[in-house]
From TrEMBL:
Provenance organism: Dawidia cretensis
Keywords per UniProt: Cytochrome c-type biogenesis, Disulfide bond, Membrane, Redox-active center, Transmembrane, Transmembrane helix
Residue spans crossing the bilayer: 21-41
GO MF annotations in UniProt: oxidoreductase activity
InterPro entries cross-referenced by the UniProt entry: Redoxin, Thioredoxin-like_sf, Thioredoxin_domain, Thioredoxin_ResA/DsbE_sf
Keyword Disulfide bond: yes
Domain Thioredoxin: 358-496
CDD domains attached to this UniProt entry: TlpA_like_family (cd02966)
Name of this protein: TlpA family protein disulfide reductase
Compartments reported by the entry: Cell envelope
Any one GO biological process: cytochrome complex assembly
Chief location bin: other
Amino acid sequence: MERILVSPHLAKRIRYLPEIMNMNAIYTVIIVCISLCTAYGQNAISIRGKIEGHYEKSIALYTYNNYLEKKPAFLAQVTTDAEGHFASQIKLSTAQPVMLSYGNPFPMIVWVEKDDSIFINIRKPYKLTYPNGRALFDKGDVLYSGRGATINNYLFDADLTIYNPKTHETAQSRSIERYHVFLDSMQQAREKLRQTVWPQNFSPEAEAFLFGEIIAGTFNHKSQAEVYKTNKTAEDSTVLTTPALRQYQLDWKLSSDLALTSDAYRQSLISFCNQMAREKIKKRPASNSEREIYFSYMYREAYNRLQHIAQTREFGTAFTLHLMAMFIDGQDSLAALTNDFHQKFPTSTYYPILAKKLQPRKNIPDIIAFDTTNNLVDLATLKGKPIYIDVWASWCGPCMKELPNSKKVAAKFKGRIHMVYLNIDDNETAWRKVMKNQKLEGVNLRGDEATSRKIKDDFNIRAIPRYILIDKNGNVFRSNAERPTAIEPDILTLLK
């Protein structure tokens, strides 16, 4: 299981599986008054509020205009005055979630519609989480009032939603069976509360968003928890989520294109197709060829099973290709499926994004990183021998699991290749600690924030660990190379 990376201005690190990290440095009371008085179109949404006792004197508001790459579209960056007051105006054409970040890289979600006038009271410090890039809150930390408050209070009820830190803690501290019981009890509570709030006459957009955050969110937790547990014990284990998968198939009839505004719903599409693909191949794909087959299954499952919801079908099939480009090094198969996607969705705005992924880098990029003595090293100076690069970080569990295998590659081909351990941590101390404990022999480099961002952009890295194989002339042989346990044939090819 790889770790998913996101844009650094949203989060420097995101863990794909549930882990909690507290931020004790922030003790704040935030009272935010969001006054939304608008008819969508040319009319502006007025946002005002007050922040008390917080060291960060700004608020960022943004949406996502590109669900495929999840790039933010910033609406406003507001600077507070000396007393913590702020005011801004933004424009939105449809009802949708707005991300609100107040100094932390992990956004809160506020559902907004025309004529809303929402008062948000954030009364205690947030906790940071890396599984889904959101702030977590305990019960009572977030309260809403005013027009539009009902749906937001429902979303942020800490006993019911993915904002609850207890939900993530149980993924590691409980057995899968007990964790399922816990999630089922949450689901029952959600359904009970939903019956009380549905008569509030929510808009179709709001109802669809709630579906995504609640039903799809529960399925994501179930599937991710089992991936985590099974991958800890067996590398090639199957994901035993048949009951959860079947129930989700029954719930699928509730899905709607309007639910695409929900990040949990979008994630569930991939989780759903992922489970269907695993049921077919019966094991975790390890090699490039197996991953090609695996993502081809996912592509077909998305296209065939989502045909009753056109926009969701388009996004689901596009996202499987987006993932395929990240995790395989097979341009022919990716090109064939991308062309097939273009024929199926000739006017899709996702196609230009996918087409760019068919232009692999040929030469080693200009990447300069720090070595163990804090001197700068240019990767290009390592030409003359094949270069096998392990891109890793100390906070990435799968990376740490693979480091011993990379060490075996370094030992077997010592003197014949350059084994490069390229760290993208923002924590130099953690990097040095791992190097010492793991006794990493080879070229150890660490990128600063700018270098790490360039590495991810140049090689289209959205998840780690990631491996890159470069020939002795400095040409990229595999931009998404095999893992250490399967890389030997390619290295031998370059050594001939």
